[in-house]
User: Fold these one by one.
Assistant:
Number 1:
Amino acid sequence: MIIMRTKIKTIALIFAVILLGFTSCKEDNYSLGDLSAPTDLTITADIAGKTDVLPNGDGSGIVNFTFNAKNAISYKVDFGDGSAPKVYPATKSKKYGKVGTKHYRVMVTAIGKGGSTTSLIKEIDVYYAFNVDPAIVTMLTGDSATGKTWMIDSDLNGNLGLGPGPDRPDGNAETFDATWFKVGPNGKAGKGIYDDRYTFTNTKVYTHVTNGDLYGYKWAFARDFDPATPGVFGGYGSEWILDYPDYTEGFDFDGEKGSDGVDRTIITFEKLGYCGFFNGSHRMMIIEITDTTMYLRATSDPGTNDATWYVRLKVVAP
């Protein structure tokens, strides 16, 4: 019976310890505090250089933002220019870099305790002017209000050409020359392109004399010029010769640093403009320019495997 008593005492002791543990525990109370979402959110956008004469700013593209809300810890901001939304404190200076006067839809989300949020949208118009090298303006326009006129230098080898553009998924490195294909002298005769004339004025007016037709991709013409795409097959793939009259519109300048580290000037057109073969781009990068010659590049869709088109121009004799 000694063994039995020992077992009974042992069991009793274990039970007592367990019971003591339960009775000695205190109830813990946790509180997250007030998790109410931020309130009274406001967005102040101070556009640099804004006056009655310059309602969209002085061309610097700088906007000084102030965000304010009760119970807010930080602010997540989508500036509406395609950049990724990020979290900022209550003030942020932002430079918008799209040339001309552009409309932006700014969305601010005030973040409170526990991740509670409140959002607000503010719409602004901002003017940005790229500070182009005056020498480029002179070479392009002749510093003339009536303009300087250019045409494709059809007698050259490589008057048009193709090469790899930026950020290609297939891994082909970007070049700044037509390394894939060069059109031979007068190689696109009969395509409605060699009789085109391109005039640029120092007042930023662009006139494209088409002589009745344009040469480029049919899908691009359908998107930007005429959905009906009147015209004829251009001879290869989706190439098309579009029936289209002369047109005039505005142009401006922008800048871009290439993957080779070189800063280059870009001619940006208001709506339709381009030079050479139309691949869907209204931005022509200046690779080379002199008083009488110009070498341009147009990338239709960066980050894809689409080819970049090149064109060599010469000044039309007065």
Number 2:
Amino acid sequence: MSEPGPPGERPNGAPPGPGYGPQQPYQQFSQYPPWQPPVPPKRTSPAAVVLITGSVVVVIVMALAFLAWGYPGFLRDDDRASAGPASSSPTFTTPTTTAGAPSAAYTVPTIGPARMPKRSKPLADPVTCAFTPDPTSPAPKKVAPPADGPASSSGTVPVRLATSAGDIGLTLDRALAPCTVVNFVSLVQQRFYDGTSCHRLSVTSGLQMLQCGDPVGDGTGGPGYSIRDELFPELTYGRGILAMAKTAQPDSGGSQFFLVFGDVEISPEYTVFGSIDDAGLAVLDKVARGGIDPSRPGIGDGSGPPKIPVTFTQVTTP
């Protein structure tokens, strides 16, 4: 009988089987990683919190702004529904001044009336006038516009403004602005100006005038139609000049006009159509010395309603 061979040797030279071979030491395997103590979460710095919060606020504000201005009715009224007289009815005015308050006192000029401007090239005689309906201008006093057609460009027309402050005499000059004269005479004959008041006085240097002719009384009213500008390069303004007011748009005059009693430095964009007599200038000087009524609103340029009221009791022409 043979002796068993040494450990690991197969009997009779047979190939080793699964149970044969050197004994390996026992090893323990696991599918889980070794346990580690938990790591506390990182704390967010105050700067990061502020940055994140600010970003969120900016996004919200931008979204609200987009909705507010992109969609009328969300946070604001529809512009078309909320537009008031200032937008739908532009103010008829002369240029504004940069002063924030009226001059402390008005000094009567020592010089006489300014020289009237004159066209270097006379107009044709007659000229053709046209008057355009203006539904955007409040017209509480209904009048008919003058008929379109020919108008004389020669001669003058006297007008008397009987006012609560005294009488003011005017001389309308057809050679300067024939269609404007036709319009003014038509309004006088229809008693459009009777009962209206001059709503704007300016005594600031560079714009010393009294503005009148608005049936509404706030600078927005007119006769319900507009007239064309009648301008020429030689236009100048000064004491004793009568000129038409208008909006910022050309050919937008109607019934409002201004009476110049002092220094006026404006561009030649306002139709000059006549002059003021000495007695009328004395009345205007008295009104100017009275100053502006601080209890009534102006337009923010130092001008405003006169403290001495100027209401037209009757305006007449032969």
Number 3:
Amino acid sequence: MTPIPVSVVVMTRNEAINLPRCLSSLDRFAQCFVVDSGSDDGTPDIARCHGARLVPFQWNGRYPKKKQWCLDSLPFDHDWVLFVDADERPTAELVEEIARLMVKAANEPCHAAYWIDGRPVIRGQRLRFGCWNRKLALVDRRYVRFPEPADLDIASMWEVEGHYQPRVHGTTGRLRHPMDHEDAKPPSAWFDRHNHYSDWEAALRADGRMERLIDGEPEGDSGLRRCRLIGRRAQKRLFQRLPGRPLWAFLHAYILRLGALDGIAGLDHALGRAFYYWQVGLKMRSAASTPAPAAAAQVPSARTVPDFFPTCLPGGEPYSSSIAILSPPSAFNRSNVRLRTPGSSIR
């Protein structure tokens, strides 16, 4: 069987419990990198045993973060890159769909990036309903670049880009089949990870950085955009402003999206979403009630990303994290906080 001409990137830190099943689902792709951040649980050995190319990564606390660093630095054999978290597995149907897409892309113009749904798997049960996540996971690396939202001042900031999509020079499509998202770690890992995620979102929402980040995101599947009453960015802006977000998040997942039909697993997933947004709101209210320092520095807005994203700076100099500027302190500064690197994105 001809390998699929796509380079896969799996980013890890202590993912030994998840990585074997993830890598087993990627056998048909022509190239696979495991970009590891100092794992000490056997993750590197697992990557080598599955034939993946192991690349060590150490974040220097600046931009670019891990995904953009991969796009800039890895020796890709192919222009198309698939980002897969260690606790994700492309379904067989998705792999076949990507294979057909690559054959089509070789003969006619296509989109610059594709949205892929993430299907939650709770205690071995694949959810049929509820609120799944969606992200631009299959990208043509020549036409995408991740934004730099001036979030380096946040206490729990980590080395991987936050919950935002890359900027795309071109149109986007959506693949029909999902990736399964099943984290084999204990529930305590989920709570720990989402505690840090909510720190990040609360800080960005508090001073308007989240709004600017949403403004720069791709609108969504170009084919579906014409038949929607309200676009992806408008939906996110509306949800940002809704009072009682935890309640709405629960009702959306459990009632409107029929999560109740998934039984107790659907209830747990909907409650998890509500709990996350309750955390964000609580942290924003707590920060707002804390007196600001007398000479607090103003946090700059996100750096502007141009419509086209060259891989080299003017003059041919490769992009480097040394050109990035650290954000000044804020009410959510990183004083005495140990950086953490979650193994997967929020669901």
Number 4:
Amino acid sequence: MSMKFKAPVTLNILTPRSLFRPNDFLNAVQTYCELLPGVLPERWWWAESPREFDLQNLQALIPTPEDKLQVRQSVPPETAKNIPPEFDTRCETVNWDRKKKPKAEGSFSPRWCSKAPSVRDTHANMNVTVELGQVAQQELVTCLKQASVRLNAHFALMDTLTASYKEFAGISGSAKYSDRFYVVTHELRHCLPDIFWGTVFGPPYVALFGKEKLLNAPVFAAEQIAENMVYIQLTQDITDVANDPAAMALHRKAFKDYLGVDAFFVEGRGYDSYSRLEYGPVGKIFVTPEFELAKD
């Protein structure tokens, strides 16, 4: 049910919390609704037909035992036998969209748990995409920063994907299969795809780069938003990304050169995002932090 955007602006927030428990999951949903009340979902769904979103009944986003049973009955018996017992008590990914202006779509995704040695468990992920210019930039920036603080994010971004950047976004892993940004833990364990127009570096990255180093970066804004969390904004206006791609490339390069840490993807070195699975769960070419995911 993916929507089309002419100039998609995406907020992507990765939290170490699992969001499996209903209270934690609903806290993430309520956080979004409080911070962007003008961009509330109209419809939501798990894997079935969309339902109407009701701000007064967020409990509907939590699967009931009947919902879980329906899932078990909808898959082949062999598949059902392999569904773990904890499936019955965990929250599920909620996808949503909004067709009236401001147009938007997003998801609230609990942690994905690995059963294969080639990958590890992931962060939970909250993301939203809107059309460039339909939601005030400051509202989006405030949402990015405050949601990151409330969810104790390890990493978060805000950026708009342009045609000139799309190929690099694919091979670096920041927009691998889509027309908008979506960064996942599997990629971050190998490298940072890039510095984005707006980026929140949580505790693992503050420890890696250094708080004072980040706060003195040559960017439009460098702000400590929590004890071990720093917000970086490359330029004053996000429209710079589309209006002057060459200048944006220089801004991105200047920040990475200033940090002097070999943590960002470089095309032609080692392997790209599409062949990452061949190299194990953690990369050995670029410097990466160790992510400690919260235990329920």
